[in-house]
Amino acid sequence: MKKYIGVILFFCGSLLITACDDDDKNPGNPVMNVQTSFGNAHMGDSLAFAIDVEDASVPLSTVKAQLFFNEEKVSETVIRTKTNGTYSGKIHVPYYANIPNGKASLKLVLQNINFTITEEAYDLSVSRPDYPYLTFVSEKGEYRMERTEAYNYAVTDVFPQKIKGYIKTPVLDENGNVLNFGWNNDAIKEGSTETIPFSNTAGGEYTITFNTFDYSASPFIIAYAVNGEVMQRVDDNNYTIDVALKQGDKVTVEGFEGFESWWIDPSYFNVNESGELHFVPIDGNYRITANTALNYLILEALNGKDLATLQADGTGAVWIIGDGIGNPSVSTNAVGWDTSKAICMAPIGDKKYSVVLEGGKTIKTDEINFKFFHQKDWGGEFKNETLSSESDLIFVGDGTNGRDPGNLGIVEGKSLESGVFYIFTVDLSKGNDKGILSVSRK
To answer: Tens of pLDDT along 115-141?
Structure first.
């Protein structure tokens, strides 16, 4: 009896395998009936569609909507089709800069589980929407940008010199979306709400513009300049330039609103009664960074295109890192042990380097703990074996006198005076291992 049961089971199994093979060989016949009429669309739209789908013999898999610009697929929507029936969805029509109005191809592709497909294609006229207005969204509020001509928009109002914001569109119709234009990699980009750093030569009434075709916009200050050379933007608060300067040269800085009230580093500039800046250090190449958040200029000596370092012969640069010192003030921007804030001492010639500090402003009057370094980073540094002090006010730490080796301190029982300028000078004329620190009143 067991023998007959085995034969019957084998026979049934063979029938099942044969049936499966037959299903696999059946391609099926996916059929779709599109319920939506296609003709026109705007860039930035979400184009709705509805499709009746069926396959009488093989289960369906997916229906895809694909959009092509010049044979390049730019958008796709995939819907799982578990059963025969009606399916709906939306496909996004991309919005790009500098793309003219034209024809696109919309393909609808229905596929069953045996990879048999049915496809329909439609020509679609795609145009860039010409909005009646835009909205500039800033930290100061929202401003309506009126259409001035095709794709061009403008708003005139009283703005500060610098104002940041992004631009958004209205919704034109049932397929439309709100589009945002913001800042991305130093350019305006669709789909971003990162704020665009508009800036004018001065605060007051001026006009902000934007073009939705090529994304051109204004105003952006390009007039931040030193000696007539345009500074490069580092970020929203910093602009920089590398320049060759000579001792005694007049240095002109242009484009910054209220520059006459900026803090000017007395280590690098003398300011005359007319407000003119004259360069103090020796001739050389320097990097000037304008910090518009704290309103001051940062000066750093260069060797070629790189920040200068102390050379074996005593030339180059000496840097300050540590506590109790900071520009434009120790209260607003203390250096501390953050090497990115290291202060470059002014090279004054004969292998001497100086920094002019104001008691109570750029240097604390009661406690300091900074030291001198060979570079704007960790590495070579001056310790008590390589630096001695001639001052009766400032001492060099040796590890046993209240300061680590090379760190500076104020002599016990003494203090600096508020409002008094002190010149700290490091003299390396006798060698980098025989540095002498002197401190004098300016």
So the answer is: 999 999 999 999 999 999 999 999 899
Q: Is residue 12 over pLDDT 70?
A: no
CB 165 within 8 A of CB 179: no
Q: Which two tokens stand for residue 297?
A: 């200029």
User: Residue 6 contacts by C-beta under 8 Å, 6 or more apart in sequence?
Assistant: none
| Count of CB atoms situated within 10 Å of the CB of 143 | 18
Q: 3-state SS of 39-51? A: CEEECCCEEEEEE
Q: Which residues pair with 270 in a beta bridge?
A: 278
Tokens of 238: 């910093």
Same domain, 353 and 278: no
Residues 410 and 337 in one domain: yes
Q: Which helix (H) or strand (E) holds 349?
A: strand 346-349
Q: Structure tokens of 269?
A: 């500039």
Q: What tokens does 19 get?
A: 């049936």
Domain count, the chain: 4
* Residues 138 and 144: beta-carbon distance below 8 Å: no
